[in-house]
Amino acid sequence: MARAQVQRAASVGVAEHGNSAVLVTVAPGGEFLDRRRIDLTQGLPTHPYHHEGSWAVGRYLNSAWARPISLTDAVALVERVRESAARGAREGLAALVAAVPVPIAGIAIRACPGLPPTTEERITDTRASNVADSVMYREALATAAAARGWSVHWYDRGHVFRDAAMALGVEDVSVFLHAMGRSIGPPWQAKQKLAAAAAIAALKDSNR
Prior knowledge:
- By secondary structure, this protein is α/β, with parallel strands linked by helices.
- It has one domain (3-206): Ribonuclease H-like superfamily/Ribonuclease H (Nucleotidyltransferase, domain 5, 2-Layer Sandwich), CATH 3.30.420.10.
- Helix content is 52%, strand content 17%.
- The protein has eight helices and five strands; from the N terminus they run αβββααβααβααα.
- The chain has a five-stranded mixed β-sheet.
- α2 (49-56) packs antiparallel against α3 (71-99), α3 packs parallel to α5 and α6 (160-168) packs across α8 (190-206).
- It is elongated, with a radius of gyration of 18 Å.
């Protein structure tokens, strides 16, 4: 990407929720460009680690929605969901690129905790199974973005609003985000604000 293009490049912030994600795209300076929600999978269980995986190893079997499933089948299900999420991420980012009038240089995604290396280990480890689904969806978006040549920025949710304020050179980014929300209308809730703050915080690195 030429230097002039990089200086005008936009940044995408992501706030994931289950198998969907809110994406907010901003231009240098923090100007709003796009807001959308994408579903990464269709017609498949949304939490195969936490639900089907847990049932396979005997957790939560007293829940009303639990059903019998083997560990082998749970592992296979996770892989099907992973492949679907990868496809959904590629398609979602392609649609975003087609709609935004300037190049995109980076994406900001919530940082992932460390997990055991294999699907089976992530299922059998109770702590890992609680977060592995979300990590899978975040990683799908990161891989799709990297394939487009975008920089991937992993943000800390506890610091991202402070980092966005620093990127804009203001003390409190909430005023800026409030004005952005008023200008574009609803929905402008916590997820949209988080995604916007992440995109703004990533601008400095994306356009360096």
